[in-house]
Amino acid sequence: MTTGWVIALIVVGILLVIVASKSVTGPIRWIGFGIMQVVIGALLLFFTNLVGELANFHIPINPVTALLVGLLRLPGLAALIVIKLWVM
Prior knowledge:
The protein has four helices and no strands. By secondary structure, it is mainly alpha-helical. The protein has a domain at 27-87. Helix 2 crosses helix 3 (63-72) and helix 3 packs across helix 4. It comes from Brevibacillus fortis.
């Protein structure tokens, strides 16, 4: 699937949620909240990787890990570090 189709499906999905909810502010507020959490998580992961560079330690920054750390904050970051150390 090309990038254009994925973007089109996301936009159509957001529009369907807005139409189904009969309110524009609710879904937009939740989408904004989710984006804010992903940004916060990405920043925390970036600074963790910056410090972890001294010990040759790296956690990949992708939407899943960023959302996990964004929603759970430090416990989520600690969980990713423990998983990285034990599993990998």
